[in-house]
């Protein structure tokens, strides 16, 4: 069996967009799990995503008390034998993989946000680190982005960074 994940982060609604882009909603409709790595800003985004499917999310540094009351700083779930962890911020990019190996020794996949910069690397221990960028606030990036990930048989089958 294959499980399809939609990865997004840093939506910053309503600051950067009024609502989620239609491309995000379409991907959410076909995903088995929607993963949001923080900086929702408005709890309405969580409600919107929940209308499209199961959501695994964390709070970010721009999220208020309303979101902090219902979302953890770190979320974990085993999916298809893959130990997934989600966190908003991982710090500087220098030595990120080594620091995250220490911080998340029990994870196979770490999803994070904060920088709005898409990221796909593997740590020395073999943990995959993914940042989907932002579907609404590209900052200095050339495109708004999201990621679609497929998990199966205890591993990561595919990772697809998509421009929207």
TrEMBL record:
Top-level EC class: hydrolase
Sorted UniProt keywords: Metal-binding
Required cofactor(s): a divalent metal cation
InterPro entries for this protein: Calcineurin-like_PHP_lpxH, Metallo-depent_PP-like, Phosphodiesterase_MJ0936/Vps29
EC id: 3.1.4.-
Signal peptide annotation: none
Stretches assigned to the Calcineurin-like phosphoesterase domain: 4-153
Family statement: Belongs to the metallophosphoesterase superfamily. YfcE family.
Alphabetical list of PANTHER family matching this protein: VACUOLAR SORTING PROTEIN VPS29 (PTHR11124)
Name of this chain's protein: Phosphoesterase
Species this protein is from: Microbacterium aquilitoris
